[in-house]
């Protein structure tokens, strides 16, 4: 241990006595490590931010489909309202189970006609898509069962139709397929808390949700079947099991057991895929940045060779005093490693600061809050890796030093 | 029992081949007893430094052998030679050969770290009068001070043999005497056998054993009965020959 401290001390002395040269040598390592750290920390930050924002917007959502991931649709597996009611009756832990019948119509208001995106759903739909309410509430089960002529309008929709958002109790005239219906506004939905969602979502001029029962009788649909339905369990622990139960139940009900015609995609698995893509991109860019580390390593090797040449006499003296070949080797390896570890530590510092700067600029430019994040694992890994670079690129010069014969080394001067 | 500590037997060494071949040692024989202050005298080219390098285990002879305490260096492998240098030898070079980026204390510690039975570094610093300079770097020291550090680095190992290659070669008269007194001190105080190579004839008066070399062989091998201390020693360049 005392020996190792001595080696480190000697290395630091030697590095300090050639300050300019050491800094320039370290620069390669600093640039390499800081680029990697910067990319990884921003990548982590983006991943956390995207995952957090998407989770707050879609967390827990699962779509149950009468089809599979290849895009095939199986009409014989399609769901009816009766299917949904049966599931709700028979299976526990179902918080939301809703069709999503959506499309475009026209709203007529004192401000003129506006293109309107409608979504006909069950009252539990809001639970899977939580929004703040600017006034009123979502429609109720009673209104759903009765087919009441009510709707819940979007914030922008209220502004576009009425010029303000305090429109609960007002009436919207909605035209669809040549028919006209007057809907009473029972609530105004605010924007999602997820900035990312709001950024990516292309909102129509007017959007509203209405009970599916109301829409069905208005549009004149009979026994409509749905290819997918939105599901959410009452707790994330129950989600997986409940979905399996629902699929088994529906397969039995439709007598298509084991045919894999009913599948599901959960937001979590979707999110995992997005995270995977972000990870791959981060790793790829970090890898490109890491190439500069190799360049830095060659710089270290070069300067260590110069150091060996310069210190031939010192090596000769140490050897004539009885220093072992291995200890000369360790001394030069230690020096290379100390050089690159120092470079690595500065690299981590600059990389983190660079990451913070990029995140700051990102949050100013695109108004998404990204926090540069590096874990202790990354820091330890980088320190280890930079030591490894030093040792790897130090081996050749150190061997050259260690192999010098003392008589040759002393004779050189 | 034979108390010869160091034995040099039929030692031969040449450099170069063909016409450029130069026989530096041509069959050298002598022995040194433990604790002796031995001076190897000879003009330039008499093979002194080569002999010292061979005794130091950093060069090898073509023929003959060096044995220490009965162990022949020729029979040692690289590792054993390293251990031999480490355990038995202290080296004082003519040009000091200090490590420039280490300070006085650290330079001496380099020696201490290589020994199993090192002397106390502070004590050595005091003995050598370097306490006030211990944090200075070699470039901040005079030649005499640097040579003291070099002696310190060799002595701190508490070596069985202190090898000195022209230790006063680059020093002025007064400083040379101080350095010689120090080496003499170490010889007495720590019991190291001293083998000093020099071309300064005057130094023979402070030695127990004087070996004169010329053209690669031993010409005189004398025990000095009337040894004097380094402080009594006097020499002037023009007096060398008259004193002989």
Q: How would you explain this protein's 3D organization?
A:
The complex is a heterodimer of chains A (413) and B (244). Chain A is an alpha+beta fold and 413 residues long. Chain A folds into three domains: 2-55 and 271-411, no CATH class; 67-95 and 234-261, no CATH class; 101-225, no CATH class. Helix content of chain A is 59%, strand content 17%. Chain A has 14 helices and eleven strands. Chain A has helices at 2-17, 19-58, 81-90, 125-128, 141-146, 155-162, 195-200, 212-219, 236-254, 267-310, 312-320, 325-365, 376-403, 406-411; strands at residues 62-65, 94-99, 101-109, 112-121, 133-136, 150-154, 171-176, 179-189, 206-211, 228-233, 263-266. In chain A, the strands form two sheets. Chain A has a six-stranded mixed β-barrel. Chain A has a four-stranded antiparallel β-sheet with strand order 2-10-1-11. In chain A, strand 3 (101-109) and strand 4 form a beta hairpin. In chain A, helix 10 (267-310) packs across helix 12, helix 10 (267-310) runs parallel beside helix 13 and helix 12 (325-365) packs antiparallel against helix 13. The longest helix of chain A is centred in the last third of the chain and has 44 residues, at 267-310. The two termini of chain A are 33 Å apart. By secondary structure, chain B is an alpha/beta fold. In chain B, the strands form two sheets. In chain B, strands 6-7-8-3-9-10 form a six-stranded mixed β-sheet, sandwiched between helices. In chain B, strands 2-1-4-5 form a four-stranded antiparallel β-sheet, covered by helices on one side. Chain B is globular and about 50 Å long. Residues 239-244 of chain B have low confidence and may be disordered. The interface between A and B is medium-sized, with 23 and 31 residues.
């Amino acid at each position: 241990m005392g020996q190792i401290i001595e080696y480190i001390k000697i290395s630091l002395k030697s590095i300090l006595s050639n300050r300019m040269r050491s800094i320039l040598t370290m620069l390669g390592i600093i640039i390499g490590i800081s680029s990697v750290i910067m990319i990884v920390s921003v990548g982590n930050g983006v991943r956390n931010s995207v995952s957090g924002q998407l989770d707050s917007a879609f967390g827990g959502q699962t779509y149950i489909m009468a089809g599979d991931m290849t895009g095939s649709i199986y009409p014989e597996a399609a769901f009816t309202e009766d299917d949904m009611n049966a599931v709700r009756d028979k299976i526990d832990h179902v918080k939301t189970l809703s069709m999503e019948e959506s499309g475009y119509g026209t709203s007529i208001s004192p401000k003129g006609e506006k293109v309107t995106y409608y979504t006909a759903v069950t009252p539990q739909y809001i639970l899977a898509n939580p929004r703040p309410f600017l006034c009123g509430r979502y429609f109720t089960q009673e209104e759903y069962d009765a087919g009441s002529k009510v709707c819940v309008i979007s914030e922008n929709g209220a502004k576009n139709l009425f010029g303000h958002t305090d429109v609960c109790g007002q009436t919207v005239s909605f035209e669809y397929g040549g028919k006209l219906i007057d809907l009473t506004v029972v609530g105004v939905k605010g924007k999602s808390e997820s900035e990312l969602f709001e950024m990516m979502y292309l909102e129509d001029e007017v959007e509203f949700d209405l009970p599916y029962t109301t829409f069905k009788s208005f549009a004149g649909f009979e026994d409509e079947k749905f290819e997918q339905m939105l599901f959410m369990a009452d707790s994330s622990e129950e989600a997986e099991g409940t979905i399996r139960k629902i699929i088994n139940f529906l397969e039995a009900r439709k007598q298509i057991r084991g045919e894999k015609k009913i599948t599901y995609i959960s937001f979590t698995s979707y999110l995992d895929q997005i995270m995977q893509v972000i990870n791959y991109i981060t790793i790829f860019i970090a890898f490109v940045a890491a190439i500069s580390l190799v360049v830095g390593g060659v710089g270290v090797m070069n300067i260590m060779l110069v150091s060996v040449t310069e210190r031939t006499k010192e090596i000769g003296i140490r050897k004539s005093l009885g220093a072992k070949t291995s200890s000369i080797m360790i001394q030069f390896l230690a020096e290379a490693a100390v050089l690159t570890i120092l470079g690595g530590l500065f690299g981590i510092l600059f990389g983190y600061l660079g990451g913070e700067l990029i995140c700051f600029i990102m949050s100013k430019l695109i108004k998404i809050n990204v926090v540069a994040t590096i874990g202790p694992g990354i820091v330890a890994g980088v320190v280890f890796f930079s030591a490894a670079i030093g040792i790897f690129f130090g081996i050749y010069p150190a061997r050259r030093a260690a192999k010098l014969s003392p008589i040759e080394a002393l004779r050189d001067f | 029992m034979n108390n010869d500590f160091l034995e040099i037997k039929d030692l031969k060494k040449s450099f170069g081949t063909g016409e450029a071949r130069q026989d530096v040692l041509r069959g050298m024989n002598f022995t040194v007893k433990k604790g002796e202050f031995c001076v190897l005298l000879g003009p330039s080219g008499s093979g002194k430094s080569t002999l010292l390098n061979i005794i130091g285990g950093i060069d090898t002879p073509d023929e003959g052998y060096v044995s220490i305490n009965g162990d022949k260096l020729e029979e040692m492998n690289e590792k054993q030679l390293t251990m031999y240098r480490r355990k038995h030898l202290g080296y004082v070079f003519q040009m000091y050969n200090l490590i420039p980026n280490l300070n006085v204390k650290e330079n001496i510690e380099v020696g201490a770290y290589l020994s199993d039975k090192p002397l106390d570094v502070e004590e050595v610093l005091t003995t050598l009068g370097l306490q006030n300079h211990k944090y200075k770097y070699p470039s901040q020291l005079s030649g005499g001070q640097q040579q003291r550090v070099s002696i310190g680095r060799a002595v701190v190992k508490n070596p069985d043999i202190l090898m000195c290659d022209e230790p006063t070669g680059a020093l002025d008269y007064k400083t040379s005497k101080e350095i010689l007194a120090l080496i003499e001190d170490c010889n007495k105080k720590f019991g190291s056998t001293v083998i000093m190579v020099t071309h300064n004839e005057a130094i023979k008066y402070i030695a127990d054993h004087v070996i004169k070399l010329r053209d690669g062989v031993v010409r005189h091998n004398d025990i000095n009965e009337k040894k004097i201390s380094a402080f009594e020693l006097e020499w002037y360049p023009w007096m060398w020959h008259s004193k002989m």
